[in-house]
Amino acid sequence: MDIAALSISLNQAKVAQETSLAVMKLAMETGKQTANETVKMIEKSVDPNLGRIIDVSV
Questions:
Q1: Chain-centre distance of CA 11, in angstroms?
Q2: 30: which of 5, 23, 37, 46 lies 20 to 30 Å off by Cα?
Q3: Prediction pTM value
Q4: Measured at the alpha carbon of residue 39, what is the angle toward residues 34 and 44, in degrees to the nearest 5?
Q5: What's residue 45's pLDDT?
Q6: Residue-wise pLDDT tens digits, 39-56
Q7: Distance (Å, whole) CA 36 – CA 31
Q8: How far does Cα 33 stand from its chain's mean position?
Q9: DSSP calls for 1-58
């Protein structure tokens, strides 16, 4: 086996794995940010007094 070719092949596999991991980390961080922003929006939109008193007239 050619040692140089084997070394290049292993390095390429390592770079591909590191790139895949970096992209996955970015996706996870984006997902966390989106989730946090969604929770903040929901918290701001909820009014604790809404729906407690209903005015009914006939």
A1: 29
A2: 46
A3: 0.62
A4: 125
A5: 79
A6: 998 888 777 777 677 778
A7: 9
A8: 6
A9: --HHHHHHHHHHHHHHHHHHHHHHHHHHHHHHHHHHHHHHHHHHH--TTTTT------
